[in-house]
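Morning!

This is the sequence you dropped in the shared folder:
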Amino acid sequence: MSEFELNLEKMIAIATDGASNLCGSENLLFTRLKVKYPRLISLKCICHSLNKCVQKACTELPANLEFLLRETHSWFSHSALRKEIYSVLYKSLMSNKAPPKLTGLSNTRWLSFHTATKQMIDQWDVLKTHFAKIVAEAERDSTQKCYLARQLSCMYQDRLNYLYLLFLNSILEEVNKVNLIFQSDKINLIHAYTDLHLLVMMIARRVFKPVFLRADKHLDGIDKQAADLECVKTADDKSKIEFGNSLTTVADVDYGFKFEEYLAKLQEEKVSINATELNNLKLKCRSFLLKLAEEFVQRLPPNFIPY
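The structure's back. Tokens below.
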């Protein structure tokens, strides 16, 4: 900065992607500059922050979901023959429609989960049939031994994996909408921050008891948003205590319309699901929502949350 003769007295902010080496809490670029220029503020990229929030929250879900998404894509990505076999099956089951291309997962963009989960949900039954046929053919022909295909076939037979994807997709769809708003070339910041506020409150209402999210009803505009977000922070703090816990019961968590619709369909068809396994699934989904709310509180910019 000195070499280019920049007047640091005129510096008002440092904008980063949120990397810890740039704006961490101890002896890093922003903290060093802050000591010399106390009025300096840190502006973190909302898109990177949302991506990190999802990345952290996904650690609460079983690792086999990421395995299912990655390995299904990999199964077809390096083999034209496998693509052709699947295409023939898909067309025969879906009125001669061509199969949509499956999206791979990015190691740096966890919001790619949204596209990947949606495509897998849309093709779930065909993919399940595809891998079941491969396993059946392998059993008839002892020379065909594909352990990965057997693994994937078992995972597609497991209805709990489908429920996880339905839940995850409903959340990622909303996060992705806000992410795309902030990536737009033409952005109305007032509307964008309103959408961000609504996203945070939508997640909070899914997992916290309503009584902990009631801000002063006489407030409006920015004051109302600030009060709402302070309620989320308080609810998050109280989720860790035994008495007066702010978390809603597992039965009362909002898992999404598609999730509940599929469960109701299974009940109508009298398909049994192990009650303990279903309860564990719901517990993990609730943990995902709680972690996502915590990450929102920690990572959103200080000019958005009043503390």
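Headline: Residues 121 and 162 are 7 Å apart (CA to CA).

More detail when I'm at my desk.
O.
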